[in-house]
């Protein structure tokens, strides 16, 4: 689950977004994001009080994703003690990167607004003076691209199944005026590592990174 907030044009393993809706930009300060003023909420929060950060799962230009373990039950997120999650750790931009600051704020607002079985879920957000921590559901099956390379091909039935799941998620986003912009096998994550692509034993979710909220005509 890689992230690259610094690129406006889509590219492999990138997660940049460009936002046209004014509401996501109106409250964004042009000052240094690594300051005493949080971007989200009223105070800074400590992720280490609730999660144990572990091994790295992926990296990008401005972010990395690590596996984390819940220290205790988190009923507000429906997480149990010992359960694994994926945490995207985003470096806050400096004052010269106002556009990237807009992108980060917009992506978080969009992630907060969506909840769908085939879109990676955001559980909660933590923030320090220099970083933002997005606690998300962990999917252990890897990328659809890697599964295709391993298997060589899918049957027509399996391809139809994954296409249905993907279009189901896309329709949900489009109904909310959100466009993904970078749909490809690298951005489709599988729920498990089972070797068989059986429809009964495998799920798929769209990587919830590259998205743009479309303005009204």
What is the topological layout?
Blueprint (H helix, E strand, L loop, with lengths): L50 E9 L3 E8 L13 E8 L6 H16 L8 E6 L3 E6 L7 H8 L4 H20 L2 E2 L8 E3 L13 E3 L5 E2 L4
Summarize the structure.
The protein is α+β, with helices and mostly antiparallel strands and 217 residues long.
Radius of gyration over C-alpha positions, nearest whole angstrom: 17 Å
Derived from helix and strand composition plus strand pairing, the structural class reads alpha+beta
Q: Architecture of the largest domain in CATH? A: 2-Layer Sandwich
Mean pLDDT, all residues: 77
Low-confidence segments, given as residue ranges, are 1-33, 197-202, 208-217
Provide a count of the helices: 3
Helical percent range?
Answer: 10-25%
Our measurement of the CA-to-CA distance between the termini, rounded to an integer number of angstroms, reads: 33 Å
Fold-level CATH name of the largest domain: Phosphorylase Kinase, domain 1
Largest sheet: 5 strands, antiparallel
Approximate shape: globular
